Amino acid sequence: MSVDRIDIDGLDRLLATLDPQRREEILHRLITRATTIVLARTKEAGPRTARPRPIRFGGGRISRDMVSGRYTPVLTGNLRRSITSEVQRTQQRGIVGTNVVYGRYVHRHRPFLTWALEDSQDKIAAEIDKAGKAIVGDR
């Protein structure tokens, strides 16, 4: 399961001014850093509640506290531990997701990956700014 995509206006035009090897290096570093930021955000621990609260998903009921993770719901910790990232250099994209069977179901009811991406926008923007300064500094 992958998260939404981030499009950066004007990045293609800016990168086109660089030699291909330097462009590839900067873009790969930027994608790797953005992916790492989102991955770290999904695994952040959240506040513990004083007493377990039941949470309903559809017709089911989970009687233990699933709000102990800031973004990723935690019952046993398996979902949070299963979240990984991958950077695909040839397709110039980073993927953050999980391979556990119930990951899609949980995400439908509590979109933890999307929330983590949305809350990472400022840090990712700062990384994009650094990459832009590196490009301009090369000139």
Biggest β-sheet: strands ordered side by side in the sheet: 1-2
How do the SSEs run, as a string of H and E?
HHEEHEEHHH
Gyration radius (Cα, Å) is: 18 Å
What is the average of the pLDDT values? 78
Poorly predicted spans: 48-55, 61-68
How far do the termini sit from each other? 39 Å
The total of beta strands comes to: 4
Strand content: 5-15%
Helix and strand content put the structural class at mainly alpha
Give the CA-based shape. Answer: elongated
Number of helices: 6
Residue share in helix: 40-55%
Largest sheet data: 2 strands, antiparallel
List keywords for this structure.
mainly alpha, 6 helices, two-stranded antiparallel sheet, 12% strand, 139 residues
Q: Concise description?
A:
With 139 residues, the chain is mainly α.
3D architecture notes:
By secondary structure, this protein is mainly alpha-helical. It has a domain at 11-45 and 76-137. It contains six helices and four strands. A two-stranded antiparallel ribbon has the order 1-2. A two-stranded antiparallel ribbon has the order 3-4. A hairpin with a 4-residue loop joins strand 3 and strand 4. The protein starts with 10 loop residues before the first helix and ends with a helix. Mean pLDDT is 78; it is low at 48-55 and 61-68.
How does the SSE layout of this entry go?
Layout: H1 11-16, H2 20-42, E1 55-57, E2 60-62, H3 78-82, E3 84-88, E4 93-97, H4 103-109, H5 112-119, H6 121-137
Antiparallel strand pairs: 1-2, 3-4
Helix pairs in contact: 2-5, 2-6
